[in-house]
Design brief:
It contains 3 helices and no strands. By secondary structure, it is an all-alpha fold. The termini are far apart. This is Proteinase inhibitor. InterPro entries: UPF0153_domain.
Length: 87
């Protein structure tokens, strides 16, 4: 599967704990990455500054669904299901 151009759900829904240029503490879940362009493309794509977690992410039907809306729902669900539980 290829990325849906302009989707950017993986740059919005999940948290990213590693530093990102412009976001030195990482990115909270549900927050748009500062490296997203106005047309929802990664300004760091192919750049060595792009976090390894972003470079290693691969689209899949389970993660991306059939639309940007489904991708946001799926990734939000996965983010919530995998976040550490705090007492």
């Amino acid at each position: 599967m290829n990325c849906r151009i302009g989707c950017a759900a993986c740059c919005i829904a999940p948290s990213i704990s590693s530093p990102i240029p412009g976001m030195p503490s990482g990115k909270p879940a549900g927050v748009r990455c500062v490296q997203l362009t106005v047309d929802n493309c990664c300004a760091l794509f192919g750049d060595a500054q792009r976090p390894a977690v972003c470079s290693s992410l691969r689209p899949s039907r389970e993660m991306c669904g059939n639309s940007q809306g489904e991708a946001l729902e799926q990734l939000t669900f996965l983010e919530q299901a995998t976040r550490p539980h705090r007492p």
